[in-house]
Amino acid sequence: MKLLEKLTMADGVSGGEDAVRDMIISEIKKYCDDITVDAMGSVIAHKKGKGKKIMFAAHMDEIGVIATFIDDKGFIRFSNVGGIYTKEILYSRVRFKNGIIGVIGAEEEEFNKKPSLDKMFIDIGAKSRAEAEKYVSVGDTAAFAGGYTEQNGVVIAKALDNRAGCYILIEAMKKLKRNKNDLYFVFTTQEEVGLRGAKTAAYAVAPEYAVAVDVTDTGDTPEAPKMAVSLHRGAAIKVMDRSVMCDVDVREAMIAAAKKAKIPYQMEVLNIGGTDAGAIHLTRAGVKTGAISLPLRYMHSPSETASIADINACVSLTAAIADTL
Ligand code: CO
Ligand code: ZN
Questions:
Q1: What CATH class has 64-144?
Q2: Structure pTM?
């Protein structure tokens, strides 16, 4: 899983995916016929075949924060890039693109309640505005920092949403030797701020079918909301989320492919959130679109947790569906 570690340790807050993009391009070069990068920064890799035109999509970007104001004492006020939960990020470390680390703090009176973003700040240890401005400017983004851990069959890291999806597409590309279908593997930008990169990439590719690969919530922690997705139970085949009703033919093909190859799977209905599938299926005159989801605990926190067996199941299902659709 060295590649997954590399991918999660790279930072790519929405709109600044360059480091992740470079890493992915150098990894997939050998496994496709051509690669283009579109104006939005998405990577479109083509693996030629004579059959159906299928687009696979995984987003490269991750949630993060953006500096909005630096005060006289050198504390940096910030806003969110994508969905962040204020309770989960208190005292987290964030890393700006130049490597500078900050700690997220909150105004004293906020400690006993759920702090609101405008009462929080980033402390980089600067003693004045002038000192802080040597390292951070308004508009700079920072990603959550954190280590990478594998133990007890799980991986713990930041940005598994959605570097795990990128990893799954890359490993599926490596598995596919002589594909009959015409395959496009797209690594999209700016999903976390509104499925933006997928929209333009899908327009350019104009696929007949599409499959988004992303993460989903689980209902398997103490007193969690009732949700029929758990870690270690296999790849989740999406039925719906707030952005898409998955195409029935694609969904049935996934179930058939999973059964045939004995890949563990579970069905997913997600009550909140969306995925690139939401943008792709509404492209041009519509695209038959499904989604494969990796069950993930603590989504959008610096310690996202997923099952290694589930990641491998998602790789197998992605490769299987590429030629059976
Ligand atoms: Co996300
Ligand atoms: Zn995601």
A1: mainly beta
A2: 0.97
